[in-house]
């Protein structure tokens, strides 16, 4: 595997499985003896079988020796670091590297899907892999000192994607990486803005991303979908500060190279910058009157993910949505009805139908052909189940756990989705390399027989999923 490919393998492939642990109320001197005997520099603290903290030799130096404290009178709890920074077994290696860099730590506890300790990973375990990696780009983003440096680093994301596209990297991992890097660009831009002129912003506000950005499913065609939520208690001066901040932030993103949303779904638009109370009212209007435009706007908004600021607004708005759809199913029915308008373009004998005329004649708009129907259909099921967090794949996993869909159906949806996104990303990479602006069209004539066959299977998978959600939401009751 290419060196950079290592960073897209799961943490479980690299972590140390043998971990020395102790309890928070164990005598400090006893644990130190174990550390000395085993020649280790840290011990993970577990409570009720779950990791809760960590004690390192640095803690001993700084909190015991330097303080002149008698260690025989201490228990581990008094000097351990808590809460413990953890990462999941299935999370990717570059995410572990980023976390260590961001938190300025040297190790992470690795946990399974039940939150139980399964290993530990340190920076020394993976330092040899850092010569050429997305992690280096994250470090360079964090080191930028001004807007021009950040703009230069942002342009490298596209170059990295172009490079990785030929390495056999899983499309799902590349998409996660793009979203992760875009998040870091946003966070660094906000940090630079706060250093420059926005140091005194109110605490009760949040900058959120929406749509595919909210789901973490961006490709090379990435425009802005974002909003701002702020506390109802803020006064006119504070609201004016937030307005000024949003204008500068969006203008700066455009200047860096992130295209504006053609539909105006951006925080500098007052329609997408509201107090929590006004967002609550707006969400009610969308849900109670599910016109096609309201369904699209609400569908974009409910992918809300907090990038910066108070995360409680996001949770309150999602809770409101969950409660409403439990009382009234009409919005979800209309949402699903809207996805059914995007019929997979398969004709007689399974032939894939491209555009009939115009500049894209013979080409396939891959988002309309299947990606939208899958992501929006899964979203509707996730709203009903109260499981909106994460990507389409993460929502599918939650739906399987809740027995909303079975494993076989989820696997079919995931495979169809992954292949369609692969086609989308590959088409965009080809466009960039040929000097064209990336879009959602793929050239059917460039596909070989195997790719055409896989595309047919993926589009048929979309059709089967549409039949499922049509029945699941009882769309035959709609008039």
Nutshell version of this structure?
This protein is α/β, with parallel strands linked by helices. The chain has helices at 28-38, 57-65, 93-103, 123-126, 134-143, 147-164, 171-196, 211-215, 236-256, 276-288, 292-301, 312-327, 330-339, 366-385, 392-401, 407-433, 449-472; strands spanning 21-22, 42-47, 50-56, 86-88, 107-111, 117-122, 205-209, 226-230, 273-275, 305-309, 363-365, 441-443.
The residue ranges in which pLDDT falls below 50 over 5 or more consecutive positions are: none
Shape assignment: globular
Indicate the mean pLDDT.
89
State the name of the first-level CATH class of the largest domain.
Alpha Beta
CATH homologous superfamily descriptor of the largest domain: Beta Polymerase, domain 2
**Which class of secondary structure composition applies to the elements?**
alpha/beta
Q: What does the largest sheet look like?
A: 4 strands, mixed
Q: What percentage of residues falls in helices of 4 or more residues? A: 40-55%
């Amino acid at each position: 595997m290419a060196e950079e490919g290592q960073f897209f393998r799961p943490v479980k492939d690299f972590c140390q499985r043998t971990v020395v642990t102790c309890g928070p109320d164990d005598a400090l001197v006893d644990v130190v003896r174990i550390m000395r005997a085993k020649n280790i520099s840290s011990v993970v603290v577990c409570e009720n079988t779950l990791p809760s903290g960590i004690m390192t030799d640095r803690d001993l130096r700084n909190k015991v020796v330097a303080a002149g404290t008698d260690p025989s009178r201490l228990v581990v709890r008094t000097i351990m670091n808590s809460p413990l920074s953890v990462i999941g077994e299935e999370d990717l290696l570059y995410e572990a590297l980023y976390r260590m860099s961001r938190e300025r730590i040297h190790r992470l506890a690795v946990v399974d899907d039940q939150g139980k300790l399964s290993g530990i990973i340190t920076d020394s375990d993976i330092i040899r892999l850092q010569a050429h990696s997305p992690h280096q780009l994250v470090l360079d983003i964090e080191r930028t000192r001004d807007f021009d440096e950040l703009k230069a680093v942002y342009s490298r994301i596209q170059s990295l994607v172009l490079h990785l596209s030929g390495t056999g990297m899983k499309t799902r991992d590349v998409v996660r990486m793009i979203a992760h890097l875009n998040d870091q660009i946003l966070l660094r831009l906000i940090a630079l803005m706060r250093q420059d002129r926005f140091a005194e912003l109110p605490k009760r506000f949040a900058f959120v991303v929406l749509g595919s950005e909210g789901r973490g499913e961006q490709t090379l065609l990435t425009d802005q979908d974002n909003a701002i939520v702020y506390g109802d208690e803020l006064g006119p001066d504070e609201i004016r500060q937030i307005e000024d901040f949003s204008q500068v932030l969006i203008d700066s993103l455009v200047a860096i190279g992130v295209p504006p949303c053609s539909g105006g779904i951006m925080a500098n638009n007052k329609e997408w910058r509201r107090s929590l109370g006004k967002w609550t009212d707006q969400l009610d209007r969308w849900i109670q009157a599910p016109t096609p435009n309201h369904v699209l706007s609400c569908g974009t908004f409910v992918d809300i993910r907090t990038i910066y600021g108070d995360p409680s607004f996001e949770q309150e708005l999602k809770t409101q949505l969950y409660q409403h759809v439990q009382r009234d199913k009409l919005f979800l029915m209309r949402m699903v009805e809207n996805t059914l308008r995007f019929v997979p373009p398969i004709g007689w004998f399974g032939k894939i139908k491209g555009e009939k005329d115009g500049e894209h004649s013979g080409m396939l708009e891959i988002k309309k052909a299947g990606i939208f129907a899958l992501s929006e259909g899964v979203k509707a099921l996730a709203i009903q189940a109260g499981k909106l967090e994460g990507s389409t794949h993460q929502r599918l996993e939650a739906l399987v756990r809740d027995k909303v869909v079975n494993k076989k159906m989820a696997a079919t949806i995931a495979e169809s989705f992954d292949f369609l996104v692969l086609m989308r990303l590959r088409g965009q990479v080809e466009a960039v390399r040929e000097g064209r602006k990336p879009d959602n069209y793929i050239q059917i004539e460039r596909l070989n027989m195997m790719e055409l066959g896989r595309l047919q299977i993926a589009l048929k998978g979309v059709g089967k999923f549409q039949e499922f959600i049509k029945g699941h939401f009882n769309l035959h009751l709609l008039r």
